[in-house]
Design goal:
Blueprint: E1 17-20, H1 27-35, E2 37-40, H2 54-64, E3 68-71, E4 87-90, H3 100-106, E5 110-111, H4 118-133, H5 136-145, H6 155-158, E6 168-172, H7 176-187, E7 191-195, H8 207-210, E8 216-219, H9 233-238, E9 243-247, H10 256-264, E10 268-273, E11 293-295, H11 304-322
Parallel strand pairs: 1-2, 1-3, 3-4, 4-5, 6-7, 6-8, 8-9, 9-10, 10-11
Length: 337
């Protein structure tokens, strides 16, 4: 590992110094402050938005004299690994903002925080499902616009729905979020199936075999070459007539054009989506005009609890690394010696 700057030994503290640009709070932050000097400057508090490129992040590390780096969204590659860093924490389940190969070559352990947002995203999944199934958004709009008796009808006529209790849900991907969603759906009285070829607790290893049983399909898989576009026209057609599709994971998991077609045909009763390719949906997109579709702007993990969860996980593992112990969550453990 390279050293980018020389520090005056008469002024340098014996404590490590941590630059934290991720949202961080709670017991994890308190614990980090207990053993390190902390510079806390989270990206989420910046207006306009600030996400450091690698050169800018390296310069900030130099300016602060940091030997611990904790990030969430900043670009960690190239010159960052030329700094004298003991450990880097990426507050993500998948630290895709970090060049892992380069970090490994530099001998710097990269910590991650799997499951940090499992409960938050599972709650958003349930919220989307209720909103779609019970016409929550449309009913709210009617009240606010004075259209409760629109067209001479009453809301009870327009917004009837099948209750979720007694129905069958299919969870696609049984990782941390999928598991957190599963027990919540079961708590609603639903029968829950699960497709995940890599989890022995899943009920199905064949997605096409599960879908015909499903009144609700909820997406929780990680985007890989294997899973990208895994739900397309054939899969939507295989779902029960009147099924609801919920994706609180990533839009790349489904074919959006095929989803639009399934909704327009009436085969699907509705959809709830928390993510779009490019993080944005054009206002003239067909989904925007559909009253049976609820759209949220990728806010499933936007809870203060997620910030506390990632702080607790990353801080504990940083301390383990500094103590010469094995961290619980390290994506390149081969550098630990």
């Amino acid at each position: 590992m390279g050293v980018s700057c020389v520090r005056d030994s008469t002024t340098v503290s014996s404590r490590p110094k941590a630059l934290v640009t991720a949202p961080y709070r709670g017991d994890g932050m308190d614990a980090l402050r207990a053993f390190a000097d902390v510079v806390y400057d989270p990206w989420i508090d910046q207006q306009p938005l600030r996400i450091y490129r690698a050169d800018d992040l390296a310069a900030r590390i130099d300016a602060e004299g940091a030997d611990i780096l904790i990030v969430e969204s900043d670009q960690v590659k190239g010159p960052v690994f030329e700094r004298n860093l003991k450990v880097i924490g990426s507050c993500r389940g998948d630290p895709n903002n970090v060049d892992i190969a380069a970090a490994t070559a530099a001998g710097i352990p990269i910590l991650n925080a799997p499951g940090r947002n499992a409960d938050a995203v599972a709650e958003m999944t349930i919220a989307l499902l209720f909103a779609v199934n019970r016409w929550i958004v449309q009913g709210d709009a009617d009240v606010r616009s004075g259209q409760v008796y629109a067209g001479g009808s009453i809301p009870y006529q327009r917004y009837r729905a099948w209750q979720l209790a007694g129905r069958t849900a299919g969870v696609v991907g049984l990782g941390a979020v999928g598991r957190a969603t599963k027990w919540r759906l079961e708590g609603l009285g639903m029968k829950v199936l699960a497709y995940d070829p890599y989890n022995p607790q899943a009920t199905h290893t064949d997605l096409d075999a599960m879908l015909p049983e499903c009144d609700v399909v909820s997406m929780h898989a990680v985007v890989t070459p294997e899973t990208a576009g895994m739900v397309g026209a054939a899969q939507f057609e295989a779902m029960k007539p009147g099924a609801i599709f919920v994706n609180s994971a990533r839009a790349m998991l489904h074919d959006t054009d095929a989803l639009v077609a399934a909704l327009l045909s009436g085969h699907l009763a509705g959809a709830g989506l928390d993510h779009f390719v490019g993080e944005n949906l054009p206002t003239d997109h067909p989904l925007v005009a559909m009253k049976n579709v609820v759209l949220t702007p990728h806010t499933g993990g936007a809870t203060y609890d997620v910030e506390a969860n990632q702080a607790a996980s990353i801080t504990a593992d940083v301390q383990r690394v500094l103590n010469g112990e094995k961290p619980l969550h390290c994506v390149n453990p081969e550098v630990l010696g």
